[in-house]
Amino acid sequence: MRGGSFGWDLSADGGQRRRGEDGERAGRGRKTPNRSSGRAGLSWQLRRAAVPLRPEVTRLAFRVSCGHFVPRKGPGWAMDSKDMLDKRLVRAAKTDTMLGMVLEGTLNHLVTAYGDAIVTPIRKQVMGGDKMIRSFFWYPVTSFLRVARTLLDDRRLGLSCDELMSGCGEHAFSALLESPVGKMLGMFGKGNPQALVSNGPYAYTLAVSFGERVYTRKSNTSADVVFTGDLLGPSFTIAVYKVAFKLVSSVDATVTATVTNDDGSDFIIHSRW
């Protein structure tokens, strides 16, 4: 079977599955054990399927209703999805807001990346016209999330949720870091990544009104932050941390996330530098 593939088929039909009244065993590529195996009432069949014969058992995980794996960590896994974003949109309340300069940073990035002709009509539809965004006013986070969700359905762009949200996260907080408040926060983390991460939960309260964040020092060169009730999601947040490490602390940190619920609003950000 070298170079082939395998899969398991479990049948609870009250006995062995046979191909004919004469008790013929399953055909080529299948193996059906007899009742003496101790598995009466169950039938295991080895058959050819779409799972490659490679030592990748570590990629198995439990599926949740949205079709993604939770918890997820490491390369190869999607951190965010349209289904998860839909659930966060349902979760979001009118009082869940984001600072105007952060919202503007995300929308400006979308226009630059995907074109004014595509993004601006969506923005006008979602936000009720071409209204000016004021830097220190607060706006519903659903304004951004709905624009992002609509863009994900545009087949011309062919975007994944991870790709779109990462780009927005990368640019969203740049404006905040350049503001007087951001510069003051930057002074605490300049050349000191641990101080940057430890002050991150407080900095978030200046940019968004939702969610809770708890910082934990893991070592001299690593830290975790547990996010609960966050509406922007893990991909967005990973990008925020990467940019902050680079712009404020001048380090290229490794930032990953472990998602702990089915809508991506609870997750742990792991940082190493």
From TrEMBL:
Transmembrane segments: none annotated. Pfam families: DUF2378 (PF09536). Residues 1-41 are annotated as: Disordered. One of its GO terms (molecular function) is heme binding. InterPro entries: H-NOX_domain_sf (IPR038158), Mxa_paralog_2265 (IPR011751). This is DUF2378 family protein. The lineage of its organism: Bacteria, Pseudomonadati, Myxococcota, Polyangia, Polyangiales. Residues 15-27 have a biased composition (Basic and acidic residues).
